Amino acid sequence: MSRTRPKALIADASCAIGLVYADRLARRGYDVVLLARHSERPSALAQVLRCETDATIEILDVDLTMERDRKVAARFAELDLLINNLELPAGGPLVLGSTPSLDRLIDTNIKLYAWLAATAGGSMAKRRNGAVVNVASAVGLAPEFATGVYGATKAFAIALTRTLHAELACDNVYVQQVIAAATRTDVWPFDNCPPEPLPGVMTPQDLVDAAMVGFDLREPVTIPSLSAADGWTQYENARNALIFDLVNSDPASRYLKRS
Question: What is d(CA 32, CA 30) in angstroms, rounded to the nearest whole number?
């Protein structure tokens, strides 16, 4: 029997942003698979959604580093939407980080994040239908502002989405990059500076609701906190101009030896 409802997988559904996405999508008519490192909050939300919606809610309490191929990959064949919100929070300063903690952060924020996006995107491309939403922090645009390697992993997420968007453009797969600035959630990249008392910190509810408006508009990049509508366009124009200026067969005159 064919499915009548679209299906979304949300990773990480343990954090505030993932939980809000689960709520909003279930109320939009999606069946939802919640990929969670800790199942307590997703389980509580699932009880509410099962009572208030017709959605089928499935919770995968799984360590992707151990079970990604067996428990998760099988879901991609019937997946219509991936919310790729997978990440670990920042550790300490890069030069002081221990190898195990550094490896775990990179494994999650880069390797597993890329595996989710690539595997879901590849499956959707074969079916010529689907959408991938990659959520990343704005510190990916300025990684030096964050602690340790966290900002660099977010820069990777933004670069990965550019590539995915280009590769899937002809396969009827929509790719959205959501860039979140300061948001009141579990992952906060600045040591000794909790987000709650700071001005300009968005709630996860507002972030997700704005991101879903961008989703409906089929924006390639959605930045809910960016007030200037053409701010990203200006950034992209400057980036493209710089890249074009890099294509030169000769070194710049300032680097030529003077006799």
Answer: 6
Rounded distance between C-alpha atoms, residue 79 and residue 61, angstroms? 18
Gyration radius (Cα) of the chain, Å: 20
DSSP H or E segment with residue 36: strand 31-36
| Most confident region among 84-98, 140-154, 180-194 by mean pLDDT | 140-154
Return the bridge partners of 8, or none.
32, 81
The model's pLDDT over 100-131, given as tens digits with 9 standing for 90+, comes to 778 888 989 999 999 999 999 999 999 999 99
> Quick one: DSSP state of residue 163?
H
pLDDT range class, residue 1, cuts 50, 70, 90: very low
Amino acid at the residue 82: L
The model carries a pTM of 0.90
**Helix 150-168 with 113-127: angle, nearest 10 deg:** 10
Assigned token pair, 81: 């939407």
- Which residue, chain included where needed, has tokens 């989703």? 215
| Longest pairwise C-alpha distance within the chain | 81
Q: Which of 24, 5, 248 is nearest to 133 (CA)?
A: 24
